[in-house]
Amino acid sequence: MTAPQELTADPHQDGVDAAVTAARRVIESLLRAGSGSTAEMGRIADQLNSVADNLDEHAPAMNQRMVDMWAGEGTTRHDPVTGPENAIAPPLQLIGQSDGSVRGVLTLGLPYQGPPGHVHGGISALILDHTLGVANHWAGVSGMTAELTLRYHRPTPLFEPLTITGVQTGVDGRKIRTSGAVTAGGEVCVSAEGLFIAKHLPRPR
Ligand SMILES: CCCCCCCC/C=C\CCCCCCCC(=O)SCCNC(=O)CCNC(=O)[C@H](O)C(C)(C)COP(=O)(O)OP(=O)(O)OC[C@H]1O[C@@H](n2cnc3c(N)ncnc32)[C@H](O)[C@@H]1OP(=O)(O)O
């Protein structure tokens, strides 16, 4: 039996990961502030633009960045679900379990809101698509999403721990079937069934 394993890049306390953590806080704070805020938004916009100018000025060329981010440890650092270098990632940390499934727990805040106080359905779809992809990796046969069927059973709450699970259920030639769920307080909020096709795009080099 395989021991549980972390399937997500560990966030560092410094470097770009620390800046990304700060950026996530900015996104959340802007939503919290809204148009009724007494903060000087014009000045805040100038400050944020100067931060972005500084980052762009020091960034490698895009083609070089595309090579780096798909090489070595880079692979799991930039995706929009688990990536510690991606400010739009919640981020979710996934653990491969001994029973072959993958599992993670996260709490979503205002940036991921759809209906009032609840998670946007497209965000649940994003998280489940990625989790099913990681479940395939953990199971040893992975591919690209061909179909993703979601069932939204009940509204998914913001501000509460959500358990995200995924497991590969079958492989038939190049067709891979995978299922998963988002649960809150032990109740299934969203369930997913995915068909993946064993195919991998070449990594930029
Ligand atoms: C500390 C670190 C530790 C490390 C751990 C790392 C873990 C993490 C690692 C990695 C995690 C990554 C997680 C990613 C998750 C996200 C995944 C995505 O978002 S993928 C992007 C979205 N999907 C696309 O863009 C696909 C676009 N579509 C295509 O490219 C093609 O249509 C494709 C590949 C789906 C199929 O095309 P064809 O040409 O390769 O194959 P054909 O010949 O058409 O089909 C093969 C068989 O599949 C069936 N098929 C194909 N599509 C189907 C469909 N939609 N429905 C039903 N059957 C379908 C066909 O009927 C055929 O079946 P018959 O062999 O004849 O029986």
Automatic annotation (TrEMBL):
Coiled coil: none annotated. It is found in: Cell projection, Ruffle membrane; Cytoplasm; Membrane. One of its GO terms (biological process) is fatty acid metabolic process. One of its GO terms (cellular component) is cytoplasm. Its main location: membrane. InterPro entries: HotDog_dom_sf (IPR029069), RHA1_ro05818_N (IPR048654), THEM4/THEM5_acyl-CoA_thioest (IPR052365), Thioestr_dom (IPR006683). SUPFAM superfamilies: Thioesterase/thiol ester dehydrase-isomerase (SSF54637). Its EC number is 3.1.2.2. It comes from the Bacteria. Residues 7-63 form the RHA1-ro05818 N-terminal helical domain. It is a peripheral membrane protein. Pfam families: 4HBT, RHA1_ro05818_N. Residues 117-178 form the Thioesterase domain. Keywords: Apoptosis, Cell membrane, Cell projection, Cytoplasm, Fatty acid metabolism, Hydrolase, Lipid metabolism, Membrane, Transit peptide. It catalyses: hexadecanoyl-CoA + H2O = hexadecanoate + CoA + H(+); (5Z,8Z,11Z,14Z)-eicosatetraenoyl-CoA + H2O = (5Z,8Z,11Z,14Z)-eicosatetraenoate + CoA + H(+); decanoyl-CoA + H2O = decanoate + CoA + H(+); octanoyl-CoA + H2O = octanoate + CoA + H(+). One of its GO terms (molecular function) is hydrolase activity. Belongs to the THEM4/THEM5 thioesterase family. This is Acyl-coenzyme A thioesterase THEM4. It comes from Saccharopolyspora antimicrobica.
